[in-house]
Amino acid sequence: MLGFGVATSPHFVGTRVVARTSSGPVDVGALAARGQVTDGWWRAGRLEEFLAAGRTAWQQVSGELDDIDVDSADQAHLGSTELHLQLPVDIGDYVDFYASRQHATNLGALLRPGQEPLTPNWLHMPIGYHGRSGTIVVSGTPVRRPCGQRRTSPETAPGFGPSQRLDVEVEVGYVVGVPSRHGTPVPVGDFAEHVFGVCLVNDWSARDIQAWEGQPLGPFLGKSFATSVSPWLVPLDLLAPVRVPVASANTSLLPYLHETDPAGLDLTLSLSINGEVVSKPPYASMFWSPAQMLAHMTVNGASVRTGDLFASGTVSGPGRDQWGSLIEIFDDKRFLSDGDEVVISATVDLGNGPVSIGEVRGQVLPAHT
Amino acid sequence: MLGFGVATSPHFVGTRVVARTSSGPVDVGALAARGQVTDGWWRAGRLEEFLAAGRTAWQQVSGELDDIDVDSADQAHLGSTELHLQLPVDIGDYVDFYASRQHATNLGALLRPGQEPLTPNWLHMPIGYHGRSGTIVVSGTPVRRPCGQRRTSPETAPGFGPSQRLDVEVEVGYVVGVPSRHGTPVPVGDFAEHVFGVCLVNDWSARDIQAWEGQPLGPFLGKSFATSVSPWLVPLDLLAPVRVPVASANTSLLPYLHETDPAGLDLTLSLSINGEVVSKPPYASMFWSPAQMLAHMTVNGASVRTGDLFASGTVSGPGRDQWGSLIEIFDDKRFLSDGDEVVISATVDLGNGPVSIGEVRGQVLPAHT
Predict the structure, then answer these.
(1) DSSP H helical segments within chain B, as ranges?
(2) For a tag site, which of A287, A303, B57, B362 has the least CB within 10 Å?
């Protein structure tokens, strides 16, 4: 069992919960109806109730799906059915972090030349901000080049038009299953009780819009036009064998950020443009783990809800061929053209060689002008 | 008809849509069931379907409610029924703007002493950021003092503990009724076709947490612990008589921000702490209007959904007794104590003297430590 998703099809009414297995996609509700998978969460054709049911339910259903072999001739096997994967959940709040030290250093040097690239807070907390959940789209959705204000030099008035510096950010996202109580922080150690699974995220970024609007309140329209996610939620417990410590484990942290169980993940990401691989960011290189992000995000009493998404921020490893955005890789000189197709994918090695855990794909449409 | 809300009561099951009329609260579904109000949106006891129905429906129902006189002896009159007003809608994305020039100037001077208080972009666009929708609470909900990281001087390491500089921000909020299409901006002139109504917002702010975390990505935990809103949504069309031009109308703006119909509002706000009025911010003094905010927020193609909330940012008029946050009024010297009760209210004069359009109330609980 490699992931859960939600699909429509010309062959059935409404949406259905689908699991991705080694033998292909299967209809979870159909398997539950004949007693092969625990029932109770599948009838509405959505994942929210299952995600809210908690880790015991997640492990039970994943185990059941691993134990059965759905033949391709079986009606519950959807391998030959036309499926349209949808957003896997109705996303509540979306938070984007900035958890790669290499990326924050690269970007700081580009955006604030001559200054210390990391702000003084960066090594003390996972820096993040809220993004727009209403414009999160599933892989395959084309993304229109945004228009907006940008200023070419401090001496001129701002102009308006299509972004000329459209970029991507390769990220890993986490989807909350079990909600927390408003007023009660989620400790680092409770991460796996609340977070159901992992997806891939392309945080499309209009660098010119972002640069002009970003002070003093941070990213807004340079990001809010679209964020793409992969359709399969990979259960966190499936990735337990590749949990690794993050770099912040070796630094001096406030107690609420101390991590006893490593919550980093050894995933190999890949960014390609029009079929050409331009980068292979290693997710194991992150400074902050998702458990630290969740602990930080809730330490002020903020609650999380089923379907909330939080993302790592751009994943950039030490080498230039491991950086996760074009502004870094091409030193502010090359961005996306209309028609470019961007694919972010990831593999994990659970002991038998690399297995894909998903991809997020999107083509750039020309701006409406 | 002064507003729409959603209430629970020990006297009925579930929630009901309630209208606030000059004779008291009335049960809209009950009036619809007997043909006095157009039916079709009330059975689920929520406002979303009515809000999505559009301006013609809003005007029709408001007119019908104005035309009937519900006697206090009538079963549909809820004046003597114990009502618990709820969040009026399920809030999608929440965006907080920064649209008062006086406030941005005051805060810039406090946070970046010796520098130009307004950032270079401020006069060209309504600056805003996304906030956390999952921690928006209705008036009356107590608010727990947040804990978090703060640093007392650039020479020391950050500490952790309850915020020592807990503040409020007096704001006006706008709730979207009719969604827009992803990829298609909402022009300034279409504001009243999309936005249903107005509420009041207390954007609780932990200034110490905010100051330490805020660079480079803006406000996060200093705001996300709670945001309080008033329970009644006041239809925008009710406020048409007090529409006024905003200050940006007299400045040079990019065409997408030009406003032909004034969309500012002449509302008198009031901030009181433990019953003592500390400020009377005049909403007519804003630099950016809500129509400009909506046009800006969507000019990159970002869509809005039914239930999205966007707020003005702190309303501060020219005089110190018109400033909308404690950090401004008391020059960074006085903040909220545990047990303090904060009330933000507003009145409008539609020709017959001031009428209340709502209040948002909240008491500070001590931090969990």
Answers:
(1) 28-33, 48-53, 55-67, 101-111, 191-194, 207-213, 221-224, 290-298, 326-329
(2) B57
A224 contact residues in B (CB cutoff 8 A): 130, 297, 300, 302
Is the sign of the CA dihedral B224, B226, B230, B233 positive or negative? positive
Largest pairwise CA distance in chain B = 70
Q: Which residue in this structure is represented by tokens 């996972």?
A: A126
Q: Are β-strands B170-176 and B309-311 bridged in parallel, bridged antiparallel, or unpaired?
A: antiparallel
Q: Please provide residue A217's backbone torsions phi and psi, each rounded to the nearest 5 degrees.
A: -105, 5
Q: What residue type is B157 in one-letter code?
A: A
Give the architecture-level CATH label for domain B3-85: Roll (2.30)
How is domain B94-365 classified at the CATH fold level?
Fumarylacetoacetate hydrolase; domain 2 (3.90.850)
Q: Which residues in chain A have Cβ-Cβ distances shorter than 8 Å to B120?
A: 151, 154
Tokens 């990220």 map to which residue? A171
User: B131, A130: Cβ pair inside 8 Å?
Assistant: yes
Contact B92 A217 (CB under 8 A): no
A254 contacts B221? CB cut-off 8 A: no
- Measuring CA to CA, which residue among B85, B89, B41 is closest to residue B61? B41
Q: Print burial letters for B153-189: b (CB count within 10 Å at least 16), e (below 16).
A: eeeeebeeebbebbbbbbbbbbbbbbbbebbebbbbe
CB contact under 8 A, A225 and B108: no
Q: How many CB atoms lie within 10 A of CB A200?
A: 28
pLDDT in tens, B64-122: 999 999 999 999 999 989 999 999 999 999 999 999 999 999 999 998 889 999 999 99
State the ipTM, two decimals: 0.97
How far is A236 from chain B, CA to nearest CA, in Å? Answer: 23
pTM: 0.97
Asked whether the beta carbons of residue B134 and residue A301 sit closer than 8 angstroms, the reply is: no
Residues B204-234 have pLDDT tens digits of: 999 999 999 999 999 999 999 999 999 999 9
Instruction: Please state, in angstroms and rounded to a whole number, the distance separating the CA atoms of residues B342 and B344.
Output: 7
Q: Is the peptide bond before B216 cis (omega within 30 degrees of 0)?
A: yes
Dist CA B319 CA B281 (whole Å): 9
Could B302 and A224 be called an inter-chain contact, meaning their C-beta atoms sit closer than 8 Å?
yes
Per CB-CB distance under 8 Å, the chain B contacts of A148 are 299-300
Please list every residue in chain A whose beta carbon sits closer than 8 Å to the beta carbon of residue B303: 134-135
Whether A103 is a known active-site residue: answer yes
Query: Running along chain A, 369 residues long, what does each successive block of 10 average in pLDDT?
Result: 96 97 95 96 98 98 95 93 97 98 95 91 98 98 98 92 98 98 98 98 98 96 98 97 96 95 97 98 98 98 98 97 97 96 98 95 94
User: In the structure encoding, which two tokens stand for residue B180, read together?
Assistant: 């827009």
Domain ranges within chain A, ordered by starting residue: 3-85, 94-365
| Interval B142-157: pLDDT, tens | 999 999 999 988 889 9
Question: Which chain B residue has the Cα nearest residue A301?
Answer: B225
Q: Which residue has the tokens 């954007």?
A: B203
Q: To the nearest whole angstrom, how far is the Cα of A235 from the nearest Cα of chain B? A: 24
